[in-house]
Amino acid sequence: MGEFEEFAEALFGQLSVEIDEEKEISGLAIKAKEDLAGKIEFKDLEKIASDILPEFKVKVKEFLGIDVSDSIKLEFPELEDIKRLKGEKVFADNESKEFVRELFNAVAKEDQKKIAELMKQDTAKYLVYSTYAIQYISKITTTYGDYLDGTIYLNKFILSRYPQIILHKQGEPYEARFENVNSGYMGGIKMAVLEELVHSTQERLHKINKESAMQVNKINEELAKIILELDTETVNMLAEYCQLQTVPDDFPFAKRANLFFFLNPDHFLIEQIGPDVMTFTHVEMDPKIKEAIPQLLDIYKRWLAPIQHHHAAFTAMEGMAGFAIENILKDDKDFQNYLTTFMGTDFSSYQVRKSMGKDFTKTIYEKLGSNTFKKIIEVPPNTRELKDPQLYIDRLSQ
């Protein structure tokens, strides 16, 4: 087996827990469906979501004070299509977009041969975008919905199977337990539809998020190319100096891949500076690493601004959605049943969960009321203001 083929195998090794979980969910759902047949039937996800969409558009408009588009569509992807959709949410430029699509399609189909081919075709792009494949696909079983380009995607693989599995696990008498589980199922769908409707109103933040993420990815591609072109002596010296895992000489790609993942600013700077990298304006370099890769300091400096814009926009979007869910669904019995039946928690515990974006939104809401959401979209906060909302309030009053 060649080095690229071994890397493709290793990629699926990193996803093995998630892939096993997906198979387990599929198996449990088949068994649950067989046992519940003729006794209990849950309403179709498509029917429930389509029925509640008009009502929830009104709720979102009333709470946010922002119009929700009349043209929003609902789609209900199964597992492979969800994985492909995740590839569309990796914001790469036109030069790299097709590569990302092919990579996520190969991961969705578990096609190791195709992944090895893509690595050979463009090793730098593979190093950058394979990390997204691992990161995004590992969250599929906990992601109920996504929003992209005027369409709300509801995770049919999870949402149509979980209620049957939960009821089946609770055991007989199914009829007596159905009402609570069905209510929780309804609550989960309400939460997912509501969250993505809020995201649909945030187009300006989406644009900032997308453009800054594309810049980050382009900078990471540049770094990957530099590291792949380093001579073997420099690679070996840096690997030893940075105390990287020893790799045999006949695996030159693996050596460089290890170095890229270590020096990638997402890893290296956050390890060196910590979470405060999101408010840093200055970067310093280890002299020995700087001497070996003189371009590295410039790359790190250029990376700081777009990663901070990306982080700020994403945190604001998630915070608005979390705050809206908490307020719109606080008295909703289905949502409360979802929390207890599906999540094993309650509304009080849900309410106190910490989230920088939600806490920021709550603080601004206490000052600006329903004007908060328009203002956050029109005048996006920066990373410093997310940590200290008073700075944002001061800026608005200038």
Provide a quick synopsis of the model.
With 398 residues, the chain is mainly alpha-helical.
Describe the structure.
- The protein is 72% helix and 3% strand.
- The protein has helices at residues 3-14, 16-36, 45-64, 79-88, 94-108, 112-121, 123-137, 156-159, 162-170, 174-200, 203-228, 232-241, 252-263, 265-273, 287-292, 296-328, 333-341, 347-352, 356-368, 372-378, 383-387, 389-396, and strands spanning 73-75, 145-148, 151-154.
- The chain has a three-stranded mixed sheet, with helices on one face.
- Strand 2 and strand 3 (151-154) form a beta hairpin.
- The radius of gyration is 23 Å and the shape is globular.
**Arithmetic mean of pLDDT:** 92
**H/E element order:** HHHEHHHHEEHHHHHHHHHHHHHHH
Q: Strand portion, in percent?
A: under 5%
State the helicity in percent bands.
over 70%
Taking the alpha carbons of the first and last residues, their distance comes to 64 Å
- Principal-axis shape equals globular
Q: How does the major sheet shape up?
A: 3 strands, mixed
Which runs of at least 5 residues are low in confidence (pLDDT < 50)?
none
Structural class: mainly alpha
| Main sheet strand line-up | 1-3-2
- The helix tally amounts to 22
Number of strands: 3
Radius of gyration: 23 Å
Describe the secondary-structure layout:
Elements: H1 3-14, H2 16-36, H3 45-64, E1 73-75, H4 79-88, H5 94-108, H6 112-121, H7 123-137, E2 145-148, E3 151-154, H8 156-159, H9 162-170, H10 174-200, H11 203-228, H12 232-241, H13 252-263, H14 265-273, H15 287-292, H16 296-328, H17 333-341, H18 347-352, H19 356-368, H20 372-378, H21 383-387, H22 389-396
Parallel strand pairs: 1-3
Antiparallel strand pairs: 2-3
Helix pairs in contact: 1-6, 2-9, 3-10, 4-5, 5-6, 5-7, 6-7, 7-11, 9-10, 10-16, 10-17, 11-13, 11-16, 12-13, 16-19
